[in-house]
Amino acid sequence: MKGRIWVALVLALVLVVSACSSDDSDDTTTTAAGDTETTASDTETTAGGDSQVSQTGFDFDLIFHDKDASGTFWGVMKNGFDAACDAWGASCNMIGDPDITKQAALVDTSIANAVDGIVLTLPNADALRDSIQRAADAGIPVVTINSGSDVFATTAAIGHAGQDEFIAGQGAGARLAAEGATNILCPIHEANNAALQARCAGVEAGATGATVNQVQIDVANLDAAFETIKTEVSDESVDAVITLNPDVSIRARDAIAEAGSSAMLATFDLGEEVLNSIEAGTILFAVDQQQYLQGNLPVAMLALNIQSGLVVGGGLAVLTGPGFVDASNVAQVKDGVAAGTR
Amino acid sequence: MTTKLIEVNSVSKRFGNVVALKDVSAAAGAGEVTCILGDNGAGKSTLIKILCGLYQADSGEYRVDGELMDFSSPRDALEMGIATVYQDLAMVPLMSVWRNFFLGSEMQKGAPPAKRIDVAKSKDTVVDELGKMGIIIRDPEQPVGTLSGGERQSVAIARAVYLGARVLILDEPTAALGVKQAGVVLRYVVEAKKRGLGVILITHNPHHAYPVGDHFVILRRGEVYGDYRKEDIPLEQLVQMMAGGADLETLQHELEKAAESTGDQELAEVASEYGEEATELAEETAEAKERDGDA
Amino acid sequence: MTVDAPAATDDRLVQAGLAKKVLTRPEFGSIIGAVAVFIFFSLATENFFSVDAMSAVLNPASTLGIMSVAVALLMIGGEFDLSSGALIGGLGMTMALLTANAGLPVWLAMILSLALAVGVGMFNGFMVIKTKLPSFIVTLGTFFIVQGAGLGFARLISGQTTIYLSDEFANVDFAKWLFASTPFAGIRIPVYFWIAITALATYLLLRTRYGNWIFSVGGNAESARAVGVPVNRVKIALFVNVSVSAWLVAMFNTFRFESAQIGTGVGSEFEFIIAAVIGGCLLTGGYGSAIGASIGALIFEMVRQGLAFARWEADWFKLFLGVMLLLAALLNAWVRSRAQRAMS
Predict the structure, then answer these.
(1) Which domain does B271 fall in, by range?
(2) Residue B44 domain-assigned?
(3) Which among B5-14, B62-71, C21-30, C197-206 has the top mean pLDDT?
(4) pLDDT > 90: what percent of chain C?
(5) In chain C, % of residues over pLDDT 70
(6) Which end of chain A is more exposed for a tag (fewer CB within 10 A), N or C?
(7) What local confidence, expressed as pLDDT, does residue A21 receive?
(8) What is the DSSP string of chain B?
(9) In the predicted model, what is the mean pLDDT of residues A279-295?
(10) Is C160–A194 a contact, with Cβ atoms under 8 angstroms apart?
(11) Which chain C residues are within 8 Å of A2, Cβ to Cβ?
(12) Which CATH class is domain C49-339?
């Protein structure tokens, strides 16, 4: 008797999901890159809308290197991704895993699922090169984002949208040095991300006359990070801290205050609290990589490539940052954060 | 007097300040069942651990076939054919009957690297051997945990017998069993005895010991309280010796106190009865000891 | 007692025997679960029922499965290993440091990292036996040691947490073929290893005396010891088996991705245990199956990739994964309890 209930439950679940998914799945017959015939037959002209844009029916997957798309950083990227997909009439899915082997497996799945295009973060270009090639061979264009701006050209990706971390770091370092920093603390919050290392390296290169010390913390354990930073800034020779993540920057701000340190604080990436702190003067400036664009632009890049074979960037990365947010423009940026676009 | 298969003479063992055993002797010959009786705390478990090789006695002798032995581990004792069946450690409940039966002594066939268990032969052998002991197992694949407690003990005994034990040491085999199941186990003890094994049966239940035993050794507080052949002691006396005069006296005092506080006449009478029994028992015990001294 | 009676009972026993035998196998429930999950995703998505999809599921399932089989054997033997996942990343990093930084030839680095794996396994085994603490705790300690050592040495020796090896691996074609090739139909070579290892482990468990010992050590170690089973040796061997399997998976990863990264594998140790449990292993030990663990790994990856195929909102990913796994495990348990009732 009990058994029948289980069978019924499973069947019910199957029926519900089949019903749901059949609404989402696209009806396009061809999704090959560069096939220009589909555009004319698929699109409906909307009032004032570009006929190429409104109803492509493409399936795009964004595969990134974190567990879920929440938090001040990935959430904004997802907003950009979703907004672009809406605008292009595409069906989008954002999925990820910090373990590189699992991220590669998700790419394989997307290829097997015959998506139309893939947006992919590139924390380890060598590890993912193979999968990107397979996607290209299967006629699925890939745009890389966020990490790997210096190596994406060695893969089969058709373009990259992101911030060159080293360049951004140089900019930040230069600004800190200009403010008089001589001993800069750079906490790295993710142990396996080359991009973060590039940022600190850039800071060191840009901050002429200053030393930069890296310290390892874990973004999954911010309380411990707080203590670590507090200990570090208790050393009075440390006169500046540059964090690589908005959540970390808030902890750093509090740690500096509690340690009674007079160190300057700057950070990469934005968040509502970060902007409040800039207004209040407890954070000097924030480097905005504008991750909204990293989710948003690739959709257009992929769709245009599929429709017309267009390639954006000329083999170079499309730079989404660095943008600098300080007391002079913080109000405008605040509106953007509240709207989920910054 | 034929050489006993297994004997301990005047063994003593202490743990720190606690004397667990003092000058204890016991023996069993081929086809003989010696019961070691005693209440909890009498020292039975220490004795069994010395017999099975887990402990070494501080003083005294341990002889097998008349030869002095010094076992440093249960494996040594096993190799001399001394098999111990523990009360709660006989079997692995989740494993099948045949796997349990051959655990540690698996029947194998083939040459390495393809050396493997002969499953068919193992199962057949198990059904056979258990059948010889009177246990009918329909499916040797069934987990041994699905057997009753008595059947499990019996399988353990059958295993020991099959694997060539010459001496069986049984640790409280009937302690956790009901009447019928205890009977089943005792039947197999008799089977083993008939096959010429020596059996040392540890128990605190004289009613179970008496039907199968040839020899009874009673332990109290680590010392031998009495040592009798079956011919020399009737069951009732065995029971009374196990109960012990001191315990009866304690019982008497408790009942007297209760009688006083409640003013219950009947209770007071019962108390004095116990008092008389205690005195009788003390006298009988003294007489029996004298008799032993003569015999 | 007539002559007829025994014959009649024998017939009944034979019929009941076969059905019983199938139903009570520990894998049976997981097979049902796997079929149910497969049908579910084939119906709920467009592309799950395809050759490409199968390779997208089988490839990650193979490394998960190899580890799950090893972990299942250990669980049957009554112990856990929480350091197995971190060890995969640590061994890969060891390979990288030895080749890229110490300049050793690749084959030598492989041997040395294998020796390290064996050492970690023996360490786990000895510590569990000597301290008599639950293996959960002991191997949790090893987990942190491995993770910390890997991170520390990586930064100390190379200054990086990701080391690229395409130069060092330029001339090791045989190793690349052995560990990272894709012989046929998009199905990578670790899948073949997985199948072979599952078959071997099943044979070991059910047809050799070592298997008997493993079941007994997990079921009741003291009883096993009392009849002469070398309990300590069996446990240490099981721990070493897990760490050597971790080495094999590390080789697969290193030669496929030609790089090593700290953090690979961390967190996977629970996936191995989950797969083993779905496949019929009892958490308390003494019961389980290697085939079941492999089916558990297959179910796990069918669910993980299936959800991606269905392109459900990633926000719900975790929820659905958990629910589906619970359903599969419940189904497994239900089938097993039905089967056991049928037996008595």
Answers:
(1) 244-295
(2) yes
(3) C197-206
(4) 47
(5) 87
(6) N
(7) 46
(8) -PPPSEEEEEEEEEETTEEEEEEEEEEE-TT-EEEEE--TTSSHHHHHHHHHTSS--SEEEEEETTEE---SSHHHHHHTTEEEE-SS-S--TTSBHHHHHTTTS--EES-TTS-EE-HHHHHHHHHHHHHHTT---S-TTSBGGGS-HHHHHHHHHHHHHHTT-SEEEEESTTTT--HHHHHHHHHHHHHHHHTT-EEEEEES-HHHHHHH-SEEEEEETTEEEEEEEGGG--HHHHHHHHH-HHHHHHHHHHHHHHHHHHT-HHHHHHHHHHHHHHHHHHHHHHHHHHHHHH-
(9) 92
(10) yes
(11) 334
(12) mainly alpha
Which subunits count as partners of chain B given 3+ CB pairs below 8 Å?
A: C
Does residue B223 lie in a domain region?
yes
Q: Cβ contacts (< 8 Å) between A126 and chain C: which residues?
A: 164-166, 257-259
Q: Each residue of B223-245: pLDDT tens digit?
A: 888 888 888 888 887 877 776 65
In this prediction, the answer to ipTM > 0.85 reads no
Could you tell me the CATH number of the domain that includes residue B94?
3.40.50.300
The answer to whether C161 contacts A105, with C-beta atoms less than 8 Å apart, is no
Asked if the C-beta of C226 comes within 8 angstroms of chain A's C-beta atoms, the answer is no
CATH superfamily to which A165-288 belongs: Response regulator (3.40.50.2300)
Tell me whether residue B1 is in a domain.
Answer: no
pTM for the structure as a whole: 0.76
Residue A65, pLDDT above cutoff 80: yes
What gap in Å lies between CA C91 and CA C114, rounded to an integer? Answer: 8
Run of H or E residues at A323: strand A323-325
* Domain count of the fold of chain B: 2
SS3 A267: strand
Q: What is the CATH number of domain A55-163+291-323?
A: 3.40.50.2300
Of all residues in chain B, the percent with pLDDT exceeding 70 is: 90
Say yes or no: B186 and B292 in one domain: no
